[in-house]
User: What shape does this take?
Amino acid sequence: MDRLLFRNYTVFVCMLALCTGTLLYVLIAGDRAIARIDSQVTHTYDVINNAQAVSALIEGMLAAQRGYLITRDEEFMDKYRRRRDRVSEVIVNLSELTKDNTSQATRLDELRHHFNAFSVKLEQRAQTFTITRSAKIIMDDMEEIDGLKETILRVNSAILRDEYKLLDVHIRKIEVQKSNYFITLLIGICTTALALLIFNIFLFNAQKKRSHIEASLKDTEERFALAVEGTQDGIFDWNVPSGEVFYSKQFFGMLGDNRGAFIGTPSDAQSLIHPEDSARITDYLEKYLSKEISDYSQEFRMKHKDGHWIWVQSRAKGIFDGQGRITRMVGAHTDISHLKESQTRLEAEKKAAEEANQAKRDFLAHMSHEIRTPLTAISGIAEILGTKQENLDDKQKKLIRTLHSSTTVLKDLINDILDFSKIESGELDLEEECFEVDLLFEEVISMMAVRANQKGISFVFDYTDVKHLTFEGDKIRIRQIIVNLVSNAIKFTDEGSVAIKAYRQERDGADCLHIDFADTGIGIDPVNFDMIFERFKQADSSVSRKYGGTGLGLPISKNLAQMMGGDIIIQSEIGKGSTFTLYLPLKGASQAKEEKAGTKPARKKSKNVISLRDDKKILIVEDYEGNVVVFSHVLDELGYEYDIARTGKEALDMWEDNTYALILMDIQMPEMDGLAATAELRKREKKKKRERTPILGMTAHALVGDRDKCFEVGMDDYMPKPIVETDFKRQVLKYAGARKAAA
Ligand code: ADP
Assistant: This one.
């Protein structure tokens, strides 16, 4: 603002100087012109006076001579001569005055000439005049003299006339010059006055603005002072070059020091910083001052007057000069002790919650282990009893059937709960493997067709559209979804059909595998569409009473489908049936072309192709007697010989003395667990350069991470408990090979 004012002021002063200069110049020039004309007028007056003197002197000469002629008094003659000389002088003067005026000079020459003649004539008359002379001569002389006089006076009049004219011109010129002079003066005075007026207005406005700015500055300062006074924050303003720091009242007030606002030094505050924070703060400040850090914000402890420490958040802004040197630093300190306290409390609570969560997970894992272990035995025994019913009566057979179905329900429930807790905690990992979808569908058909058949409903699974389609994903989990949707369709349909159709279709621009599960069952009220996908929710309580179930199948399936990038959608009408559609995006899908019409292409060898091996024994490592019974029974059925070890240590000892086709290794055991035993065994194998023995881990720890741990220590595969007999047999056959006797 000041610079602008200064610039305007300079421009204005220059303008004023220019105006005044011009005015002065015009005045001086005008004055000079008038003076010049004035001297011309004086000159003309001189000429006129001299010319008028000539006329008078001529008359005087004549009168003096007449006096002499009459009186003969020499005094008249002297007068005459003086007047004659005077005329000559005047004529010389006039010649001098009119030398620049050619016409007047010519007239003067003429005048001089006539005057000379006149003088000569008068001289002659004076010498020759006598009273006695004839009157005629006297008259002739008189006439001649009068003639000459008249000529002189005429020439003189002509000179005077010209000079009067010239005088007239000069006077007019003077008048014009004078009026110009006054006009210029008037304009000049007006312009200057106007300029002064404008300048005054400008100064007035500038002054007004300045006062306004000063007033608002004062307001701002007052507001700032009020804010500094009123805020709970402590303000500091550090003049870095001088080393002076302004501290607001609250700055030390928050530390219990009520000395009020004052100007001090940085050390006033630094001396109160906690020794543990001091080095960090100094380091940080140095980095900020050298512009390594762009924002200044720090948290540290400062000592309260009472001796305790309070947490302070310091935020500041530096002002740097052109060379990047700090000149000033202004900032605020906020007491954040209460924030820190709640932060610490929250962290403790979070830790406690995490610990509780971990405890919940551990409890879940432990409980599942505890439940699964006896359940494996119960379900195994139920299966065994189911195959050995010859000596049992109907009641006993029914009891065994109930035992079998109850253990199956319990197994499913535990598996569902575990799955769900895995999904909820984000611990469920999906596999990525390539498989042909029709193989999967065939598995499902063989599992489900019997159930549909038992209920007397038609069961159709049409997958011609996707025959030999290769899918990349988690086969087990996809099978789980499909089995769940098919078993629901069969469960809730008492008559009619369950029709499943698989096809490829684009959805949201992505190539997807779609499977429609349509049934003619009880249907679902659309108001319950969302609810049935919530955990433990069933469409209505009468349904759960009649059909059983836990309400976990659909939420698990939907979650799994969504984890795979797909979803499950539903269409249904009460009493008319339901259609659930599962869609999953296809990754790197390819559909093999039929080699020959009507014939299937050759498939890859699947995992369960069995190879024959030498007759080696199998080692069961298991501390729980119930499981030992079940495993022994299955191995007996398969025709294997086996040894039993109760701890990991025992297993190692037995392995030292024998060569086993397969080791079935439990994980949780006293003395030495399965993981440690496996790791040790692998080490010894390497050391002794012994052939690698396949080890199959069997754990009730079905949570994520168990599987990885098993593979990490060197196991070949892993089976979660409760062990499904068919899976168990398949794994044993895979690793130990089929017994020739049982093949
Ligand atoms: P569950 O079958 O164990 O009860 P789900 O989560 O699989 O649990 O199903 C939840 C509920 O959705 C079922 O109890 C039933 O009310 C309804 N439901 C699922 N599928 C069907 C179907 N195909 N027809 C009719 N109702 C169904």
